[in-house]
Amino acid sequence: MKALIAALLLTSAASVSAQTAPPSPAPAPTATPTTPPKLIVAISVDQFAADLFQQYRNHYTGGFTRLLNGAVFPSGYQSHAATETCPGHSTILTGMRPAHTGIIANNWVDQRAGRPDKIVYCSEDERVTGSTHESYTVSDMHLKVPTLGEMMKARDPRTRSVSVAGKDRAAVMMGGHKVDELWWWDGKTYVSYAGRAVPPAVQRTRDAVAGLIALPQKALPLPGYCAAVNHPIVIAGKTYGQGRFEREAGDAKGFRVSPASDAAVFAMAAALVQDMKLGKGPQTDIIDIGASATDYIGHTYGTQGSEMCIQMAQLDKTLGDFFAVMDETGVDYEVVLTADHGAHDATERQQQRAMPMEAHMDENVLAKQVGTAIAGDLGLKGSVLLGTEGDVYIDDTLPAKTQAKVLAEALRRYRALPQIAGAYSAAEIMATPMAKTPPETWTLIERARASFYPGRSGQMVVLLKPRVTTIVSPAGGYVETHGSPWDYDRRVPILFWRKGMTGFEQPLSVETVDIVPTLAATIGLPVSGLDGRCLDLDPGAASTCATGG
Hints:
Blueprint: H1 2-8, H2 13-20, E1 39-45, H3 50-56, H4 63-67, E2 71-77, H5 85-92, H6 98-101, E3 107-109, E4 119-121, H7 148-155, E5 161-165, H8 168-175, E6 181-185, E7 190-191, H9 200-213, E8 233-235, E9 238-240, H10 252-256, H11 259-276, E10 285-291, H12 293-301, H13 306-329, E11 333-338, H14 347-352, E12 359-360, H15 367-378, E13 385-388, E14 391-394, H16 400-416, E15 420-425, H17 426-430, H18 444-449, E16 460-464, E17 468-469, H19 487-490, E18 491-498, E19 504-505, E20 510-511, H20 515-522
Parallel strand pairs: 1-10, 1-11, 2-19, 2-20, 5-6, 5-10, 12-17
Antiparallel strand pairs: 2-18, 3-4, 6-7, 8-9, 11-18, 13-14, 14-16, 15-16
């Protein structure tokens, strides 16, 4: 991180000193600030489960140590059922659940799409000729609500809003529709919407990262506390659990699935803060940062090997270096760090570690398989169901009466399968009121309701039982995933920090939709009609929720 910062920043003697010194400790608290911060720094660590945070919190010595001195909510919830990257990111800076953001999943089926590929990616414009959900033009068109940056701009057009991430869907869903700069990694370099000028900070990032990828990467150091998880396990003929991120020269994919990709995103963010002088004007600015490496590493290696342990140590250092640079700017900045969803370790390793009931999903749960069986019974051709994760759609070319028969039979079949916890029709879900109780108490159908958007969600939603992963086979280097309605995928940390604030920890549950009204209150921005509520960041009799949200 320090080397990347040195390459990207417009260095001065002071900033070089900050880059080479250890991360600065958090300033001693005095009284919780009552004036608006000049810059909001919103960080999402993709797949940073509350369980992962808890596992390593005693080992943090860098940036997380600072955040642990702020307002700590270890039981934050992405409260909806569809715990995927796009829905989760859509909640963080909108204050709305997917049922209102419209982002129900990473992918969904639109049988009206004017192209052969009827699967739609959450951050694409499917109207572009020749596109598919895997080869697409990035767009914000599917996000149905404004982000905090947009709300701030609506009040004060001088507000600058910046969003950078390792994934397009993270940058888009946190940045929203009106951003000054929005950049993401496309597998080769950092890109934005067509026609946007490349600012110097981004070009320096491109050049520095290209130089980094051109060189081989030696094995990263293994912290002593990682010995507890540094054990091999064979999954689908490949050994995992003792990796240290070595990569050959020119390996861009290996760069993406490594701590270095997070370091590059934070270095680019720091450079944009400096170049754009964010937080230096009369208004409050905002920068959103999506750190995607934890998710890539989790899917590739699982959460309980040396790979994730090293990632946690490296991310901690990267955050410390980033905060040291932010301190050097002299800007009064406010930080929130959370995640888009949690995760569950690889089935095979879980089976070895006291959880023999862990299982891969059977093929007979797939919508195509169920739909083919139903078609045979009803004298129809092919499969009459289409599916993406938990959403199941009925072939809309069928007559209405036939669709009704298919729905009834599909619900009957799914509910009889041993791996299914719940199968609900769209009508049943829409008849369910939005939950008002703490998120850990919600029923399955209430969790499904929170991520159900009529006309975009399926004619039914199917949810697997706990500890059953949607991965049918781990072959192909994809050993672990998320997306379930269970708390290991729903629970994420939510951490707030600002210089001078008095820290505290609240272990009771809160939601990621609470972030926007909480931040809005600190800048005196009135908000209403959101799914979230303001969290009081003052542990005493005073309240940070007295104004704004």
